[in-house]
Structure formats: structure tokens, C-alpha cells
Design a protein that fits this description.
The chain is of the alpha/beta class and about 325 residues long. It has helices at about 20-30, 50-60, 75-80, 80-100, 140-160, 185-195, 220-230, 250-260, 285-290, 295-324, and strands spanning about 10-15, 35, 60-65, 105-110, 160-165, 170, 200-205, 210-215, 215, 240, 245, 265-270. The protein is globular.
Length: about 325
Amino acid sequence: MSEFWTHRRVCVTGGAGFLGSVVVSKLKERGCSNIWIPRSRDYDLRERRNIELLFDDCHPDILIHLAAVVGGIGANQHNPGRFFYNNLIMGAQLIDEAARRKLEKCTIIGTVCAYPKFTPVPFREEELWNGYPEDTNAPYGIAKKALLVQAQSYRKQYGLNAIYLLPANLYGPGDNFDLENSHVIPALIQKCMDARDAGRDKLILWGTGNVSREFLHVDDCAEGILLASEMYDGPEPVNLGTGKETVIRDLAGMIAGIVGFTGEIVWDASRPDGQPRRCLDVSKAKKSFGFEAKVPLEKGLEETVRVYRAFKSQQQSRTASITT
């Protein structure tokens, strides 16, 4: 294993979150002992003075910017302004301060939502500007895509080694299972488990079920981020994914089988589907820094269900002990 991380100070925004906690764990495995994880209660990254204070406190060599305001289709529909502003302002000010402080490296995490709605499959990085994103998450996607322009501009003018990565839809243990703002896999797991536990014979899900997504396990994504941070130095964005497309109807069937829900799944076509298809061309990541996803979807789903089931059981036990 490379000693690249051993003596570097690394700031990971969002380092206590779903993806960030795995990135931090993998940094420690690589021998990095100087890791700074800013918490929102201490550093509101929407405020420039707090970013300056953060950099004064941690003096990072490398910034990995994972902090984001995210959610599923419903959350994006209800919060377009908040999702646009918060994601844009955090990233823009962090990149600017990184350039001013002459950081060694700045890794920016974008989103597959930045791609145009009707991007040909598989999505190639060169297609990123060939259309408008899908309407339901366009404000979020455009805010994140603007950071790519900033990273490229600052590289050209100020010499900032800023790289930009585009991960597929993430999933895995530790994901957000709040139905108000969760993504598709945790939402499906929770809905299937609730329907099974309630003994229902029917489960109604959003959309037609005919759209597709590509799913990347959080462990694989974290590995890709660290490989790119260590080995990639270029202005062009790079996809992180498996290169495998999954139809949502099939995904729901897989999760129902793992969870043990045997009832009928009914699709509510009056609800939005989101982008019609998503599947990434992942050849650039393999060529540029040797990244290949390793976790098969079914294995990752089984692990996610197992961890969530244990977490839910613990919650129920705590609730029972309090009430008794």
C-alpha cells in the first residue's frame, strides 16, 4: 500500500456522513493520522468566515469535499432553492479558499444528477454539457456541475490541483433510511420491511418501475475517491461506478425477496420516475487511476438489509425498554 497519505493533513467535509465515514475509515487504514472532520455545529460551511476558521484550525494539505444537501425525488421537488444554494455556496467558497491557501489537492464530489436527462447510455463524461438535467433534480445537479467549472477555471488561472468525480447512485450500510429524503434503495428496503411486518398483501411504489439506475456500494465509492485523490491530476471529470444498469422494477423485486415481502408490488405511474436511464461509462476511472468496483449489487443489498434490520431491532428494543 502506498505511503502517500501517511504524513498529509486531510480535511474531509461531510466526514461524519454516510460516504464520508467510510472515506475516513479507509484513510486511517492507509496510515493517515491527521484527519480533520468539520461538523456543521462548529463550522457552517455556507459562511465564508467559518471556512477561513476551519482552514486556520486544520491547515490541510488535501481537501476532500463530500458535504452536500441531498435527497430523493420528493426532497428535491420540495427544496429546489435550498438544494441549489447550499450545495453551490459551500463548494464555491471551499474551492476558492483552497486556492487562496495553495492546497496540494482538492477533490470535489459531483453527482450523476448533473448529466442531461436524455444522455445516451452509457454516460460518457464528454456528454455532461449536451443538455439540461432531469427536471426533478436539476437545481441540485446544476449547482454541483458549476463546481466543475470552478475547479477547471481555478486550475487554469491559479494552478489549483482540483479534480472532480461523478459517482453513480450510492447505497450500503449506514445509508439514510428517512423516507422524507432517502434515496431509492433505502426507501425500498424500509417500505418492503414495513409492508412485511404489517402483513400487507400489497405495496404501492412511486413511478412506473421501468426506469433504470446504476448503483455503487459506498465502500467502492470511497476507494475510488482515495485512488483518484492520490493518483489523478487532470481537469476532466471522471465517472465512478460499476458500469451496470438496473431497472427499478427488478431492483424492487430483489429487495422484496431479500426482505421477505411476498405481496404484490403496484406501481403508481402518477408519481415521477426521474431520469429515464442511468448507466456510466467507467473506462476513464480504470485507465486514469485503476479503479474498478468490486461489490456485486445483490451481495451489497443483502449486507445493507442485514445491517438495517439489526439497527431497527436495536431501536425497537430501546423503545420497549423506555416504555416499560
